[in-house]
Amino acid sequence: MSREKVSREAFLARVRSAAAAGRAHRVHLQTGLPERVGYCGAGPDPVKRLIDEVNAVGGQAHRAANLAEARDILANLLALYSPRTALCWRHPLLERLGLGELLATHQVAALDHESLYPLSPTEQRTKMFAAEIGISSVSLAIAETGTLALASRPGQERLASLLPPVHVAIVEASQIVPDLFDCFDRLEADGLEGLPSNFVLITGPSKTGDIELTLTTGVHGPGKWHVIVIEA
């Protein structure tokens, strides 16, 4: 196949022509709109709204009145899936929950930053890819859309919510914000200079669709997504 040799001037002329044609269909932005136009909020009960939205996007939400109930729910999930290894966050909420003791009771080996760090990169990858369940908390949870916001840090790696076929996130009421606007407001108030380079928004289990519009769950990440919401 022969290729037409195009001079630099001819190439730039084509670009200018295409740009000029595109300007005929440009979007005219309306000015003078309120700063928070599009704000929806979450109604009078953000906890209920978060639970409803998590269920609506294909997850399974569990409402717990306190830490003890949340621990029981997590124990039931461990009994349901019978994992041998769990890829876990190190987080104050999970420590208050007694995650380490709970995993030991169910004979589940915990993989976290402390246990993985001394290993070689190859050994780390092998162990993380073999984990059957990921257990994390969240940085924030957005009630309006049932979205979890996770800021990746040492001890709170994104892979816990990405690699295992099952992801369980544990959220307490103080971590819930009504709307995406509130999420960014909270991040700004906490200081954006401390925000890590990786910040993920998760809404529902992993999904993908092909050209025939066939939706498949769990191809590029967890197919089972549980959110335990603690009211207290």
Kindly describe this structure:
The protein is of the alpha/beta class. The protein has a single domain (46-230), classed as NagB/RpiA/CoA transferase-like (Rossmann fold, 3-Layer(aba) Sandwich), CATH 3.40.50.10420. It is 34% helix and 22% strand. It has eight helices and twelve strands. It has helices spanning 8-23, 46-56, 67-81, 92-97, 99-105, 113-116, 121-130, 180-190, and strands spanning 60-64, 85-88, 109-111, 133-136, 140-142, 147-151, 166-172, 176-177, 199-202, 207-209, 215-217, 224-230. A hairpin with a 4-residue loop joins strand 5 and strand 6 (147-151). The chain starts with 7 loop residues before the first helix and ends with a strand. The mean pLDDT is 89.
End-to-end CA span: 69 Å
Number of domains: 1
What is the CATH class?
Alpha Beta
Strand content: 15-25%
